[in-house]
Write a structure and sequence with these properties.
The chain has 336 residues and is an all-beta fold. It has two domains: 196 residues, AttH-like domain (AttH-like fold, Beta Barrel), CATH 2.40.370; 138 residues, AttH-like fold. The chain contains one helix and 22 strands. Strands 13, 14, 15, 16, 17, 18, 19, 20, 21 and 22 form a ten-stranded antiparallel sheet that branches. An eight-stranded antiparallel beta barrel has the order 2-3-4-5-8-9-11-12. The longest helix has 7 residues. The chain is globular.
């Protein structure tokens, strides 16, 4: 196998042809945090048209520590747009500006860890109206695309094409009678291809921004029977430094073993950046699927709003997303 090339064109900002795979997924994701208002969140739409459904997630980390959250599985039969369950993503100019909007309801969680039992959490907590209108403008070069050779083994596909970009988010957020102006930074991604959330054994995905001119992404994807992958990037306001290695150590809290503190090293050919993270708000999400043998597979995706400190003392914010398969009641990736 020769060197792997990666293709990324402005047309990739739009919808891709629906593939024949039963689990074909096309999704976009956006996160942002405003340290002045202490308001952050993430937004995701996934089209799974061959399954006749989609996935909509809206999560806001509110300044008082509460979380406003909503998840829906809308009826989706085409891959024509990201527009479902009150959420819409619009490409204004490829690689330059996109818009995110949401109008609907949200459940208000004083204790976001209640979402470990989503049915009970939705029943036991109040619901309120919610509206989001944000513009995302790119701050970094693009990272990723669609490889010209498959990188995933059959049955372990998670994204045929995938790219990311750091950006600035501006707009308004309203939850009930409270309204905020948001002026922050974050990261967005776009992926397409067959996906099951049970394909990785576990993964760690860290995103962070220190203002407009510095940010990073670190990715560790573990296989059940092999080394998996490590990588990411560091953006210094001028150059995209691609990581050839990514090392991460986590500390865990409570009987459910949620991540709380992180130390990570982003390694390029020329230097290593060290970042230390402290989770300031966490919500656990769950995905369940029954395999062909009738066994229920449970995946936990812990979404941690995280304060990052760089090795030079600078401070930033972002998300730490930890996906683990749950076996015998425990996440499988505790060693990392």
């Amino acid at each position: 196998m020769g060197p792997i090339g990666v293709r990324l064109d402005p047309e990739d900002e739009y919808m891709h042809e629906l593939g024949p795979e039963p689990n074909f997924n096309e999704s976009m994701y956006f996160n942002a945090y405003d340290p002045d208002s202490n308001l952050g969140g993430f937004f995701r739409l996934g089209n799974r048209a061959n399954e006749g459904s989609g996935e909509m997630t809206m999560c806001l980390y509110l300044p008082d520590g509460r979380v406003a959250f909503m998840f829906r599985r809308p009826h989706v039969t085409t891959n024509d747009a990201f527009d479902a369950a009150g959420m819409r993503f619009e490409v204004v100019e490829p690689f330059v500006e996109l818009r995110v909007s949401y109008e609907g309801t949200a459940v208000l969680l004083d204790d976001p860890l209640q979402m470990a039992d989503p049915r009970q959490a939705f029943m036991a907590n109040p619901h309120t109206e919610c509206a989001v209108d944000l513009a995302y403008r790119g701050c970094s070069a693009m990272f990723g695309g669609e490889p010209d050779q498959p990188l995933e083994r059959p049955g372990e596909e998670f994204a045929r094409g995938h790219y990311e970009q750091l950006g600035r988010a501006t707009g308004t957020v309203q939850v009930g009678v409270d309204r905020w102006e948001l002026h922050g930074f974050g990261l967005r991604d776009h992926s397409w291809g067959p996906r099951y959330w049970q394909a990785p054994w576990y993964y760690r995905w860290l995103t962070g921004n220190v203002g407009e001119d510095f940010g990073f992404m670190g990715s560790r994807i573990a296989r059940r029977d092999g080394p998996g992958t490590r990588g990411g990037f560091v953006w210094d306001g001028d150059t995209m430094h691609v990581c050839r290695d990514f090392r991460i150590r986590s500390t865990w809290e409570g009987d459910a073993q949620y991540h709380r503190d992180i130390e990570a090293e982003l390694v390029t050919d020329h230097r290593t950046w060290v970042v230390r993270g402290s989770v300031i708000g966490l919500i656990p999400l769950r995905n369940r699927r029954t395999d062909p043998e009738g066994t229920e597979l449970v995946t936990r995706i812990s979404e941690g709003l995280t304060r990052w400190t760089l090795d030079d003392g600078r401070v930033g914010f972002g998300l730490s997303e930890y996906l683990d398969q749950i076996v015998d009641g425990s996440p499988v990736g505790l060693a990392e």
